[in-house]
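Figure 3 (text version): structure tokens given as input.
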């Protein structure tokens, strides 16, 4: 069966009350759907994206060769089977792919928000999605699935909307962002802020799209180091040197250096720097236990069957961080969960790359 990819933007005029106490109004949410909604709306799966992802999770747009970021997992006969399920993926508030973010026009003015945009949290992102689903008359879903920041959203759904999903699959995530990850984000934030072309947030987005932003490229290089692992870098690049560069040229490069440069500078042309600052802020302040006495108290709210997936060599969100959630669930007597640690040398990005290591697990979890 065809994927039936459809792209929509929903416009909301009611205020979105944020965790910070601030209000966002009006606002838009861009989202994509795949598959067909069944008569009783019992076949819905929500997919949540990571930091630089978008609502474009599967399939290809006309004239585009690059498929959505989880195309290997979503589609006909795949782990998230669109012959069976109706899949929704929405772009988070604060992002730069169609949902309202810092470069959106601030109503009623015709100027972008820039720094007037409020700080949003992962909980706010989830709240906005929940409002979208109400608009679509979807009040309960079969499952929520996400990795990294998408996994954070999945866990927030489980705690703050406990009756919303039958199953929650969270991978390569954590219960609260730890200093190691915050430190990598700090490098990226500083590199952006100190770049003169950033113009203290008052840059021309068209110029950035044309030329990129070297500070953001450098920050993204740091990010890429945290997405891989010592072993995957050694296997991917070894000590291979660029064939066109001399070993004793000062700016001659190893393959790993070329890889970081290419990905960093390329990225800075298609992702908005202010969105990057806002979303990394949301990741940094993410903590499931906020507004609860403890993580245990937060986890007591969960009613969904929880599937926790970590990756052995993830250096950004260590596998023991996911295990800590499992241990807390044991402590409170919640056995309605499953935890697996995937044997992987790849690193954090394994959830995007090594699909064959967990796609059967996801398929079985959804069909269970």
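Below: residues designed for each position.
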């Amino acid at each position: 069966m065809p994927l039936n990819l459809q792209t929509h933007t929903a416009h909301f005029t009611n205020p979105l009350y944020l965790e910070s106490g601030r209000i966002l109004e009006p606002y838009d949410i861009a989202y994509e759907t795949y598959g067909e909604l069944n008569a009783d709306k019992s076949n819905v799966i929500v997919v949540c994206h990571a930091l630089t992802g978008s609502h474009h999770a599967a399939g290809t747009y006309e004239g585009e060769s690059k498929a959505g970021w989880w195309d290997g997992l979503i589609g006909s006969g795949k782990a998230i089977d669109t012959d069976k399920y109706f899949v929704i993926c929405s772009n988070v508030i604060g992002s730069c792919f169609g949902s309202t973010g810092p470069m959106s026009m601030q109503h009623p003015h015709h100027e972008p928000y820039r720094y007037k945009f409020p700080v949003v949290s992962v909980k706010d992102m989830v709240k906005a999605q929940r409002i979208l689903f109400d608009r679509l008359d979807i009040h309960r879903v079969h499952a929520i699935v996400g990795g990294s920041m998408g996994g954070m959203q999945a866990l927030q759904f489980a705690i703050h909307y406990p009756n919303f999903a039958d199953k929650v699959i969270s991978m390569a995530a954590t219960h609260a962002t730890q200093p190691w990850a915050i430190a990598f984000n700090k490098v990226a934030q500083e590199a952006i802020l100190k770049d003169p072309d950033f113009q203290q947030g008052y840059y021309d987005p068209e110029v950035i799209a044309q030329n990129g932003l070297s500070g953001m490229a450098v920050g993204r290089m740091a990010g890429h180091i945290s997405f891989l692992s010592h072993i995957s870098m050694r296997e991917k690049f070894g000590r291979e040197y660029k064939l066109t560069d001399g070993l004793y040229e000062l700016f001659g490069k190893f393959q790993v250096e070329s890889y970081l440069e290419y990905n960093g500078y390329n990225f800075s042309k298609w992702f908005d720097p202010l969105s990057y600052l806002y979303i990394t802020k949301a990741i940094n302040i993410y903590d499931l236990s906020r507004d609860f006495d403890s993580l245990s108290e937060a986890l007591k709210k969960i009613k969904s069957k929880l599937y926790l997936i970590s990756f052995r060599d993830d250096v950004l969100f260590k596998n023991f961080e996911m295990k800590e959630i499992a241990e807390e669930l044991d402590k409170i007597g919640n056995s309605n969960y499953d935890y697996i640690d995937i044997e992987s040398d790849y690193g954090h990005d394994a959830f995007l790359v090594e699909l064959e290591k967990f796609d059967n697990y996801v398929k079985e979890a959804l069909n269970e």
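The two ends are 23 Å apart (CA to CA).
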